[in-house]
Amino acid sequence: MTLGRDMLRDAAIGVAVADRPENLTAFRRPGCVAAIWRQRPESGFQSWVDALAPANLPKGRFVLRPDAIRHALIQLCEIADTPKESKRERLIDNATTLAHVFVRLMNAQYLLLRLQAITTNACRKLHIDEITVRLVCTYRGQGTQYGISTDAPEGEL
Question: Are the C-beta atoms of residues 146 and 34 closer than 8 Å to each other?
């Protein structure tokens, strides 16, 4: 796959934008430090997730094999008493899909799955945990902001 103009439109230099999960492999290309998958939420999903009380948002942190991801997400929703309706299933389906895409991209046997409501600047934590690659998804709020460092040594952007 070649990084075309359409994949780099609306992104910072070195960041690919993909409309399909198979294009996320762009982050492996030289000079590409991140890939953004532009998902389109189904009708009504965003207003549903925005209206959930914080206590009803699933939260947890687990190291899992890929075949346990969906079950873990269902259990987290049960614990949080996330309303049982089609939008909850959509959330579970989407998070499961994202996790499986990430596992395939990284050829991983395990995944650290973390669902968390972030209300402060979590960036400081991301820069000290020494995770080589991460997938970040924002379901509500302002979204995930990113920036490109211009003074970091090569390979540490």
Answer: yes
- Cα-Cα-Cα-Cα dihedral sign, residues 134, 77, 42, 47: negative
Contact in structure between 72 and 62 (CB atoms under 8 Å): yes
Beta strands in the chain (DSSP E): 15-18, 34-37, 60-64, 111-115
pTM above 0.85, yes or no: no
CA 120/CA 88 separation, integer angstroms? 25
Nearest to 50 by CA among 77, 87, 96, 86: 87
Number of neighbours of residue 82 by Cβ within 10 angstroms: 22
Q: How far apart are CA 107 and CA 52, in angstroms?
A: 34
In angstroms, the CA 88 to CA 93 distance is 9
Dump pLDDT digits (tens) for 97-150.
999 998 998 899 999 888 888 777 666 555 556 667 778 888 887 776 666 556
> Counting every residue, how long is the chain?
157
Q: Which residues lie closer than 8 Å to 15 by C-beta, 6 or more apart?
A: 8, 32, 33, 34, 35, 36, 146, 148
Q: Give the separation between CA 121 and CA 53, rounded to whole angstroms.
A: 21
DSSP bridge pairs for 115: 60
Amino acid at 157: L
